[in-house]
Each structure stands twice: as structure tokens, then as C-alpha cells.
């Protein structure tokens, strides 16, 4: 019951985030924003959908239950949620699930962005570790931590850095 409740909350949260992202996208595009990384966005969506499906399958098929040490990943998860809210509110209307930038817009350097270039990716990585560990879903944790790290470090973050450089200096071009 706890698993399905937590999973439901996280899935609803993601749905709300997608709705906010769509609103922010419309607002930014109406001001001349450009999108980068269209080609890999489907892989981001697939990774996240696959994470939830794989997690549900592992917990259901193998009868996974909360670990005796569940408070540790639970605390990490709660702190990640606080970090997520901080990161998203710091970006305001500039936050999106896609890489969308406004030419010559001021780079956000408030909130967690004072110290970390991509705090939301750190938060997502923590969630991809903490949620499966809460329920001893070791396979989901290992597989999706690895896939997420590869996708972020090799594809997403380099593309986002290119987009930010373009927005600041008009270097490169949107893809």
C-alpha cells in the first residue's frame, strides 16, 4: 500500500510538472525562445516512463517490501523534493523539461544555481536511487541509475550547455 501511494504521488507530481513545462514553453516561445536537443527528448521521456514501469514490475513480481533501513532513502527522497521545489521556483518560467532558451536572457544564478549548474539533474539522480532503495528494488536502482547517468552526462548536459552558450553568445544553432 505504501509503495502504490508513494508511486501515485510521484506520478501525479510528474504530471503537474509536465503541465507547468507546457505553460512555460508557450510563454518562452512567445518571446522568441529556441529549442535544443529535440532528438534526445524522447529518450528522456522513455527513461522516466521505463523507470516507473520497471519499478512497479520489480516490486510486484518479486514482492519487494520496505527495507528495515527505509528512513535513510526516505530522508533522501524528502530532501530531493525540497531541492526540486527550490530549483524549479528559482528558474520560474524558465524551467522546462525540454531544453528551451531565450536568446540573450540573463543566466539564472539564484537558488541552487549559485552553486550547481544543473541541480535538477542531481535531484532526479537522487530520486532514481532513493525510490527503489526504499523498497529494495535493487535491479531498478542499478539499471536506471546507470542509464540516467549516461543519458545526462553524455547527451543531455552537453546539449544544455551548448544551448546556454548559444543563448548568451549566439554560438552554434538549435537542433
Automatic annotation (TrEMBL):
Its main location: membrane. Pfam families: ICMT (PF04140). GO terms for molecular function: protein C-terminal S-isoprenylcysteine carboxyl O-methyltransferase activity. The keyword Secreted does not apply. The chain crosses the membrane at residues 43-61, 68-87, 121-153. InterPro entries: ICMT_MeTrfase, Metal_cation-efflux_comp. It is found in: Membrane. It is a multi-pass membrane protein. GO terms for cellular component: membrane. Keywords: Membrane, Transmembrane, Transmembrane helix. Coiled coil: none annotated. This is Isoprenylcysteine carboxyl methyltransferase. It comes from Alteribacter lacisalsi.
Amino acid at each position: 500500500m505504501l509503495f502504490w501511494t508513494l508511486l501515485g504521488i510521484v506520478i501525479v507530481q510528474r504530471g503537474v510538472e509536465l503541465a507547468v513545462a507546457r505553460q512555460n514553453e508557450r510563454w518562452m516561445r512567445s518571446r522568441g525562445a529556441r529549442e535544443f536537443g529535440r532528438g534526445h527528448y524522447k529518450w528522456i521521456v522513455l527513461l522516466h516512463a521505463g523507470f516507473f514501469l520497471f519499478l512497479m514490475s520489480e516490486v510486484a513480481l518479486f514482492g519487494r517490501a520496505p527495507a528495515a533501513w527505509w528512513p535513510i532513502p526516505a530522508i533522501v527522497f524528502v530532501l530531493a523534493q525540497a531541492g526540486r521545489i527550490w530549483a524549479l521556483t528559482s528558474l520560474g518560467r524558465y524551467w522546462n523539461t525540454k531544453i528551451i532558451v531565450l536568446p540573450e536572457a540573463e543566466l539564472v544564478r539564484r537558488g541552487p544555481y549559485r552553486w550547481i549548474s544543473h541541480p535538477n539533474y542531481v535531484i532526479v539522480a537522487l530520486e532514481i536511487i532513493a525510490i527503489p532503495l526504499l523498497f529494495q528494488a535493487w535491479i531498478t536502482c542499478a539499471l536506471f541509475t546507470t542509464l540516467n547517468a549516461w543519458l545526462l552526462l553524455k547527451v543531455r548536459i552537453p546539449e544544455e550547455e551548448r544551448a546556454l552558450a548559444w543563448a548568451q553568445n549566439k554560438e552554434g544553432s538549435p537542433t
